[in-house]
Amino acid sequence: MRKARAKKRYLAPDPKFNDPLVTRFVNNMMWSGKKSAAFKIFYDAVEKVSESTSEDGFQLWKKALSNVMPEVEVRSRRIGGATFQIPTQIRGDRKVSMGIKWLILYARKRNGKSMAEKLSAEIVAASRKEGAAVKKREDTHRMAEANKAFSHFRV
C-alpha cells in the first residue's frame, strides 16, 4: 500500500485552443501512441462541427461534453450477504473522465467514413442532448434514481 496519495499530474494545453481538457480528450482517443493523428482527428471533427452548425465548434464540443458528464452513478456494495446498487455522487475528475470516454466510445460505434466524421456527428448530437452518449448518461441517472431507496447505505 502507498505511504502517500499519488500526486496529480497536470497535462500541457493543446497547441490550437490552449486547453488541457483537449489534450486529455485526445489522449483518451489516441491509439498506439499516435498523438499527432489523434489531434488531427479532433481538430478535423471540430472544424466539421463548425461547418455543419455555423457555430463555434470548440464551444459546441465543450457543451456536448458537459451534456454527457453524469452527476450520479450506482456502486455495488455487499451488505449482510446481499449486494446493493447504491447511488453515489461522482467526483469532478471522474465525471470528466466518464464523459470523455463515453463520447469517444459512442463516436467509434457510429456509422461513418472517418473517425473525424463520426466524432463530429456525436458532438453535434450530444450538444443537442441527443445521441448514444447522452442516452448512456440518462440510463446511469435512471439507475441511480431507481436505487434511491438504498442511498442510506452510502459510505
> Please, how many domains?
1
Q: Categorize the overall geometry.
A: globular
The overall strand count is 2
Secondary-structure-derived class: mainly alpha
| Quaternary structure type | single chain
Largest sheet: 2 strands, antiparallel
What are the low-pLDDT stretches, counting only 5+ consecutive residues below 50? Answer: none
Give me the CATH superfamily: Ribosomal protein S7/S5
**Helix and strand run:** HHHEEHHH
Residue fraction in strands? 5-15%
Q: Overall mean pLDDT score?
A: 91
The span between the termini is 21 Å
Number of distinct helices: 6
Named CATH architecture: Orthogonal Bundle
Please characterize this protein's 3D structure:
The relative contact order is 0.15. The protein starts with 19 loop residues before the first helix and ends in a 9-residue tail after the last helix. It is built from 6 helices and 2 strands, in the order αααββααα. The chain has one domain: Ribosomal protein S7/S5 (Ribosomal Protein S7), CATH 1.10.455.10. The mean pLDDT is about 90. Helix content is about 55%, strand content about 10%. A two-stranded antiparallel sheet has the order 1-2. By secondary structure, the chain is mainly alpha-helical. The protein has helices at about 20-30, 35-55, 55-70, 90-110, 115-125, 130-145; strands spanning about 70-80, 80-90.
